[in-house]
């Protein structure tokens, strides 16, 4: 019995010397955003139709990370999100992506669009939020218009550079087939002899 009591005392000593368990990471109110150990906010999103997560990047504030997440979700789904998804900042403007670019988007270009969009929109967001609160044109809750005199210097309209800007190594590691929308119809298919 002395071995049992000695093993219990050694277990108690080990329990006292163990470092305390890590505190849980500070969570964000935004979807797809978490706080890294060194204090920066990280954003990531699942790539539709795969089990992959797209690492968007790290940002100074959780709002920037949330805007990047929103831009990536917009690139994948457009304005019509699946049932369980939502935008973190519904009143914030969305990236201006030409239709011909949306067909060619791969994971690397979605990441580039999301990072750039988050940094640009975060700098302009306080005036947009103030205008929405004052009953401005964006008070309806949809995507708001850019402020007057905005010459679109954020590069979002330069879709060709975004698609071509991804390096060949990035494309080989991260490329996915172009996103295609499936049309859901409630009508049944006609039988082979029917018209």
Automatic annotation (TrEMBL):
Residues 29-90 form the AP2/ERF domain. GO terms for biological process: positive regulation of DNA-templated transcription; response to stress. One of its GO terms (cellular component) is nucleus. Keywords: DNA-binding, Nucleus, Transcription, Transcription regulation. InterPro entries: AP2/ERF_dom, AP2/ERF_dom_sf, DNA-bd_dom_sf. The keyword Transit peptide does not apply. It holds the Pfam family AP2. Residues 133-143 have a biased composition (Gly residues). Residues 1-10 have a biased composition (Low complexity). Residues 20-30 have a biased composition (Polar residues). Gene3D superfamilies: AP2/ERF domain. Signal peptide: none annotated. CDD domains: AP2. Belongs to the AP2/ERF transcription factor family. ERF subfamily. This is AP2/ERF domain-containing protein. It comes from Zea mays (Maize).
């Amino acid at each position: 019995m002395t071995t049992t009591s000695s093993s219990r005392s050694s277990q108690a000593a080990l329990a006292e010397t163990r470092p305390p368990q890590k505190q849980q990471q500070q969570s964000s109110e935004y979807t797809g955003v978490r706080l890294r150990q060194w204090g920066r906010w990280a954003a990531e999103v699942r790539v539709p139709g795969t089990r992959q997560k797209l690492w968007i990047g790290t940002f100074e504030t959780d709002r920037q990370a949330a805007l990047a997440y929103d831009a990536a979700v917009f690139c994948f789904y457009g304005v019509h999100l699946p049932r369980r998804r939502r935008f973190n900042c519904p009143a914030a403007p969305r990236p201006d992506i030409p239709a011909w670019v949306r067909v060619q988007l791969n994971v690397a270009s979605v990441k580039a669009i999301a990072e750039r969009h988050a940094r640009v929109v975060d700098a302009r967001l306080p005036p947009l939020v103030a205008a929405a609160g004052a009953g401005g044109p964006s008070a309806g809750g949809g995507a708001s218009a850019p402020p007057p005199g905005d010459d679109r210097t954020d590069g979002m309209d330069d879709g060709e550079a975004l698609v071509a800007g991804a390096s060949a190594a990035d494309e080989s590691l991260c490329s996915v087939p172009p996103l295609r929308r499936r049309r859901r119809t409630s009508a049944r298919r006609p039988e082979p002899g029917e018209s």
